[in-house]
């Protein structure tokens, strides 16, 4: 560990990951800038980087686009990553670099750069961290009011960091957008000159966008080219802005909170932002995705080494029409197929017979479960499955005992109406009393029923986002609610180490690296149609790994059951159909594919993923997963149209000199042939619509 007085001692800080280097520099004109972000450099090479990063400066004015945290103030007119109003209405920051702290941490490096305002008692600490076996660089910021008295500082923007993209002839961005039932639709478009902002004001990451962005020069492909990306680890409101200057260069800045929210930093307080992860890949979009996946497996997921069980959930089959006997009947059918986890969904509690009542009253409905849930849970375990439960702790129906007792617990403003969505309101998890109530009830349920899985739902956005007890500081709700959710999940997992949690928000509305640090998987979308899911899952896979992507096989008579299984098996397999209507032939197909999935689950969920062929849903596409000596390929061709699909699919990431054998027919070929001539498909893909296949290869080790 070293701690240095910066002035006259150290001006450059290189950070290296497995394959990349990132260089920060304090310039002669007192700015903290990014000097380099790209392929890994040697220490000697970092010393040769020129301090002058621009050939021309318009009107000799510094360009803040290259700064690590552009502030509001001075000769800056771009996007402020930090905006603070000091007493007297002063909105201009003037920061000096005070000290640095460098230490080795978990096989990587931790760097803290401390800046301080020249007049007001404010410290701004820029944090950096690299980790072993990862190309991701984590950045976050801490703001400290170092005074002991006086007025608070008003923070209107506090991003986690600004990332400069190296100069290129052109720029293109990749992002996802969508809506409920249509999340994660990938788009790649030229980055416009000016500012492109992705944001969300709903209280969660939202269905409409996701807090990540990638930039390339317009020529990158799935397997080749330079790609730079950032992803915000935060499950509340957020803003991510990319800017492109006419003079050249592009940058991305992101952080929690949305425009218009205010945080008042009192004397002696500090505010720490969530991590903003940055990644450079020289191997195209596929290489970037594999690096994101690797980082999630190694450094984010709480129990990545424990592969999720195959679950059955009867929600799409029966909705609210549940009781003990019907659920037990469904459990017997699921166990017969080889399911490992049975989950009781909505409708088990309070006065809950539809979506108009009962939320908040987390005890079994006495008419539907007269003896409570324990008899059902015990019988589920006797069938060889774990027991799971659906909950929506952040919500309450006005028609509930909880709301009648605590109408002040919901997010609201005085003298304003309380708009309902789905006849429900949002509980304020920023309040300690609400958090204690929620944790106590969930902890009791998990312990009493030996619950191994909670499907944690959040089915509506914030509205009238107030916290009356905080008076002039009500906007703290937007940050502290999310922190409250995190705190309860962390406590539950600490107290119940075998508990798994699935994050759900009306489908895929709560998906980010912040929630994945506390959950095992995410409900991808309420749209379980296998054809639509190909598009949704394709966008999901750009950043998030297959292990976290919950994918159900449901009842879609227009799509063959085998095709539905193959689409779901590319992620975290679950079953959601009405098993009472499945024929014996359907049940045989289900048993066969569940058995197969158990055999290939490690390869799919832990393996390196390659997206091959056409865009999913638009032609013949394939997903290849490689783990140690095993390779699994899913080939999907929903609509061949007038032209037949290709006769082969070229594989990737194989040992060119090794011999690979297909486990279904024993055919052998070298990795070189499979990557150039391709894997033959004619005997595996039947003609017509909805053709699909699963092919397994194993590398010879002798």
UniProtKB/TrEMBL annotation:
SUPFAM superfamilies from the UniProt entry: (Trans)glycosidases (SSF51445)
Positions of the Glycosyl hydrolase family 36 N-terminal domain: 31-266
Keyword annotations of the record: Glycosidase, Hydrolase
GO molecular function per UniProt: alpha-galactosidase activity
Catalysed reactions, semicolon-separated: Hydrolysis of terminal, non-reducing alpha-D-galactose residues in alpha-D-galactosides, including galactose oligosaccharides, galactomannans and galactolipids
One family name in Pfam for this protein: Glyco_hydro_36C
Enzyme class: hydrolase
EC number: 3.2.1.22
Domain Glycosyl hydrolase family 36 C-terminal as annotated: residue spans: 622-697
Family (UniProt): Belongs to the glycosyl hydrolase.
PANTHER family on file: ALPHA-GALACTOSIDASE C-RELATED (PTHR43053:SF3), GLYCOSIDASE FAMILY 31 (PTHR43053)
The name this protein goes by in its record: Alpha-galactosidase
Native organism: Streptomyces coerulescens
